[in-house]
Specification:
Formate dehydrogenase subunit delta, Formate_DH_dsu, mainly alpha, globular, 4 helices
Length: 78
């Protein structure tokens, strides 16, 4: 599993990709990408980081992760 720093870096890179589309398209685009392409362990780890304050996350990424977490709660790890 990736460290929180690595996941923050990856999420922010996704955010940079969508940045030029403006907030209204970027936030759902970031959330959709993470929903589709990150495995459950990665999502659990980035959501835990978000719950701990989300240090280092770009504002659009932070917003996207918060909306994604609310929309699709993950089961706890076995």
């Amino acid at each position: 599993m990736s460290s929180p720093d690595r996941l923050v870096y990856m999420a922010n890179q996704i955010g940079k990709f969508f940045e030029s589309q403006g907030r209204d398209k970027a936030v759902p685009g970031i959330a959709d990408h993470i929903k589709k392409f990150w495995d459950p362990r990665m999502k659990r780890a980035i959501f835990a980081h978000l719950d701990a304050g989300g240090e280092g996350l770009a504002p659009n990424v932070h917003e996207a992760l918060a909306s994604l977490k609310q929309a699709m709660p993950l089961p706890t790890a076995p």
